[in-house]
User: Fold this.
Amino acid sequence: METILDEANRALNDCEKAPEKLIGMQEKIRQLEAYYTGNLWLKDYEYDEKGKLPADLKRGVLSEDAVSDLLDRYKEALENTEPELKAVKPTLEDLWFRESLMADEETMSYNHAWGGTIPFPKEDWEDWYDYWIVNHENKRYYRYLKDENGFVGEIAYHYDSEYDGFVADVIIFSKFRGKGYGAKGLELLCKAAKENGIRVLYDDIAIDNSAAEMFIKQGFYEDYRTEEKIVLKKEL
Assistant:
């Protein structure tokens, strides 16, 4: 953990000139945060207080402020690091990615209240593509999110008679989370909706889904809530 702390501090110091270093450290920083907020850090700290650790052992990670300060700097740097992300129209053949996205349990955990993962077999692709992409009737919009390495998620909106308005959808593949892609994807979705003449976007989020915070940071506000969901709204 000491090595991760040192590497992360160097990445943060260099993040303006080389933001890719910070992005490359994200998984290690998550490991460091889990160590610090769990029981292991406290056990190591207590061992050190009792003199049970080697005298020549570097102890930066056991400082009460070192990890906390780094995590604060990391979160601030992420907010200021603009991810390179594009909204692209998928081809029919590209729907392999959506099949993988819908089948990934961690990615779809947000949907647990409505069944979790969603089957999307190849025999359904053509009808789905015709409905969402070809004959959208200005009631539906769907795009992949793509970074320099490939597809990372999806954004969409559709008309919903329950709200007499358009409902937003942003899903980032679990292995690409923690890079600011959700917020950037939502920003791209709102921009596209506005360009397409939509004045208001809604989203309904499970009551225990922390993603509501991301929407609020992007200008959504709580319209109302039930025992199962929070309905968010944004004027574009």
